[in-house]
Design brief:
194 residues; mainly alpha; two-stranded antiparallel ribbon; 4 helices
Length: 194
């Protein structure tokens, strides 16, 4: 049962949904721990503190083996500090693969993050397109509705129509007879409405 994307790969993150069964070999969790450990070492080697520490160790090594007591020197300056050269070569030969391993693990994490970002962008695009369609539908629906100016114009037209011909209105009560403009109040002459 493999817990990696590629079987046996140290640079691939372990799936979180699958756990090592009890009594199992635990090989995947060991590989993951080893990957994290090497990644932390590689991350530490990329700091200024590591460079400062390595420089101080080399300077102390050179000083001790150059001006220190002859009987306590362990690396000969006459031979070109062979032990120091071997130790630095060994450190470099382990540092390079650890850095590559850390880069591969980071690339895998970046690949997963890019895929999640792409899916999120697709969802956002689909949501945006849906909202744009809804806005267009609302605009079309509002376009068919009368606006304030149209309603006012229609009401004014109706009022003008009612004022011009009040007898056409179904709820209109007929006007009572009114007096002619020139008649006196005493005469009481009635004139039919126009």
């Amino acid at each position: 049962m493999s817990f990696f994307k590629r079987p046996g790969a140290l640079d691939a993150p372990r799936s979180t949904s699958v756990r090592t069964p009890r009594g199992g070999s635990g090989n995947a969790s060991t590989n993951e721990r080893f990957g994290r450990w090497t990644e932390s070492i590689a991350r530490g080697m990329g700091t200024p503190w590591f460079l400062l520490f390595l420089t101080l160790v080399c300077v102390a090594w050179l000083l001790w083996n150059t001006i220190g007591p002859e009987e306590f020197r362990f690396d000969s300056a006459a031979l070109g500090f062979t032990a120091l050269t071997l130790i630095l070569s060994l450190q470099a030969s382990y540092a390079a693969p650890m850095i590559l391993l850390a880069q591969n693990r980071q690339d895998d994490r970046d690949r997963v993050q890019i895929e999640q970002d792409r899916q999120r962008a697709e969802r956002n695009l689909a949501d945006t397109e849906f909202l744009a369609r809804e806005v267009v539908a609302l605009r079309l629906a509002l376009k068919d509705l009368p606006d304030r100016d149209f309603v006012r114009a229609e009401l004014k037209a109706l009022l003008a129509e009612l004022a011009d011909d009040p007898d056409q209105h179904p709820n209109h009560e007929p006007r009572t007879a009114r007096k002619a403009p020139g008649a006196s109040a005493a005469e009481g002459t009635d004139v039919a409405p126009h």
